[in-house]
Amino acid sequence: MIKVVINTCYGGFGLSKEAEELYESRTGEFFCNYDTPRHDPALVDVVEDLGDAASGSFSDLTVVRVEGDRYYIEEYDGYETVVTPADIERKWVVVA
């Protein structure tokens, strides 16, 4: 099981200034929305520790648990959901 941070509102993924500073103080690395993996343990900890205060101006960040070792994030107008191989298997139509 892994934890993944996603945005659960329309707008877009982003950390608050406080969350970015906390992430950077804990890791010694600059936070980048595009380069930091959503399952990064430090990112997950920051979002869990700060709660609502971790969310940026146009986001509502949530930590979700994912079974297995793979996932991808599907996004529509900034609203994100996590997709796993189990989710994809359920969508197949089998023609007899």
Summed up:
The chain has helices spanning 17-27, 41-50, 85-89, and strands at 2-7, 61-66, 72-76, 79-83. The chain has 96 residues and is an alpha+beta fold. The protein is elongated and about 55 Å long.
Please provide a written account of the structure.
The protein is of the alpha+beta class and 96 residues long. It has one domain. 27% of the residues lie in helices and 23% in strands. It has 3 helices and 4 strands. The strands form 2 sheets. A two-stranded antiparallel sheet has the order 1-2. The protein has a two-stranded antiparallel ribbon with strand order 3-4. Strand 3 and strand 4 form a beta hairpin. Helix 1 crosses helix 2. The longest helix has 11 residues. It starts with a strand and ends in a 7-residue tail after the last helix. The model has no long low-confidence stretch (mean pLDDT 93).
Strand content: 15-25%
Overall structural class, as computed from helix and strand content, comes to: alpha+beta
Number of self-contained structural domains:
1
Percentage of helical residues? 25-40%
What gap, in angstroms, lies between the N and C termini?
Answer: 35 Å
Uncertain spans, ≥5 residues at pLDDT below 50? Answer: none
Number of strands: 4
Instruction: Please write the string of helix (H) and strand (E) elements.
Output: EHHEEEH
Overall geometry: elongated
Arithmetic mean pLDDT: 93
What spatial order of strands do you see in the largest sheet? 1-2
- Calculate Rg over CA atoms: 15 Å
Number of helices: 3
The biggest beta sheet reads: 2 strands, antiparallel
